[in-house]
From TrEMBL:
Protein role: Part of the ABC transporter complex PstSACB involved in phosphate import. Involved in the system for phosphate transport across the cytoplasmic membrane.
SUPFAM superfamilies: Periplasmic binding protein-like II
PBP domain ranges (all copies): 48-298
Protein name per its UniProtKB record: Phosphate-binding protein
UniProt-annotated stretches for the region Disordered: 26-53
Annotated Gene Ontology cellular component terms: plasma membrane
Intracellular or extracellular location(s): Cell membrane
GO biological process: phosphate ion transport
Record family assignment: Belongs to the PstS family.
Signal peptide: 1-19
Feature: compositional bias, Polar residues: 26-40
Length: 330
């Protein structure tokens, strides 16, 4: 399946997730209605207390949102366990297909082959979009010459069959200093997105340091003067004092820096994208804690996504996602 490369063509709709191994058991209550917002502007799910667990795993890009959701949900439902797993988008789908999780975080749409495996396993699911992201290309903060990069230059740098070893190989006038590459791992949805949009399905260079944990990439670029890497906008925003973000030249020839506005309006392209979570319809129907968690995530994703450095969807998109949740849980 081709990923949705052009941000302007993607219709975003809703919500959120958070991770951990294993499914939850039953719950003591299934009757829950939303209350007024609490002091942290996060809606409570219910006056009734739930038990059990919610099995969640997947994207490290989506992780900061889901971590925030689980923390807030725990304050309202302390007897429900919803720990965060970070296996990467592909790794999360493997667990989802195996029936090990109820919810799977993803920084790309599900692939055709993954959907087929879920069908073969008899697992019906629903896709929810939860926030906007802009993949951020960063270099070491002491790098004083990289002012912008084009898509062609990014491809030239990251291709396995390229000859880029130093910054001088990228552009005339840049110093002949070695480059160290940091990339999300092969189970990461960000890796898949980059592979399609930037590399056009060609092989990524094999000397790059790969990790499904974006914090490893952040530390790698911070610790290497020649470092360059890419990951979700939240990880740049959290470390912006210690990293230098690189403006990327879009299809109109404009060098654009990722920020709230350029990601929201699609000017930061082609590296703007939606974020997702996928929920098991069976879990939504049979496990009250999973349904309430998903509902809580969708009701609060806008606020929490902004708090952790991503960009919220529009209110009517979250409303549509909640309607989709109701249908999936019937």
């Amino acid at each position: 399946m081709k990923l949705k490369a052009a941000f302007a063509t993607v219709t975003l709709s809703s919500a959120l997730l958070f991770a951990g191994c294993g499914n939850g058991d039953g719950s003591t209550s299934s009757n829950a209605e939303g209350n007024e917002n609490n002091t942290s502007k996060v809606e409570e799910t219910s006056n009734d207390k739930l038990t059990g667990s919610v099995g969640i795993d997947g994207s490290s890009t989506v992780f900061p949102i889901m971590e925030a959701v689980s923390e807030e949900f725990a304050a309202d439902q302390p007897d429900v366990k919803a720990p965060v797993g970070v296996s990467g988008t592909g790794g999360g789908f493997k667990k989802f297909i195996a029936g090990e999780t109820d919810i799977s975080n993803a920084s790309r749409p599900i692939k055709d082959e993954e959907a087929k495996l879920l069908e073969e396993a008899g697992i019906d699911y629903t896709e929810f979009e939860i926030a906007y992201d802009g993949i951020s290309v960063v270099v070491n903060k002491d790098n004083d010459f990289v002012d912008q990069l084009t898509i062609d230059e990014l491809k030239k740098m990251w291709l396995e069959d390229g000859n880029v070893k130093t910054w001088a190989d990228v552009r005339d006038g840049w110093p002949k200093e070695p480059i160290t590459f940091f990339s999300p791992g092969t189970d990461s949805g960000t890796y898949d997105y980059w592979n399609e949009v930037i590399l056009e399905e060609e092989q990524m260079r094999k000397d790059a340091t790969l990790s499904e944990d974006d914090n490893v990439l952040v530390q790698g670029v911070m610790g290497d003067k020649g470092g360059i890497g890419f990951f979700g906008f939240s990880y740049y925003a959290e470390n912006k004092d210690n990293l230098k973000v690189v403006p990327i030249v879009n299809s109109k020839g404009e060098a654009v820096t990722p920020d709230h506005d350029t990601i929201m309006n699609g000017v930061y392209e082609p590296l703007s994208r939606p974020l997702y979570f996928y929920a098991s319809n069976k879990a939504l129907k049979e496990k009250p804690q999973v349904y309430e968690y998903a509902k809580f995530a969708l009701e609060n994703a806008g606020t929490l996504a902004e708090e952790v450095g991503y960009i919220s969807l529009k209110d009517d998109e979250y409303k549509a996602a909640l309607e989709k949740l109701e249908e999936a849980s019937k």
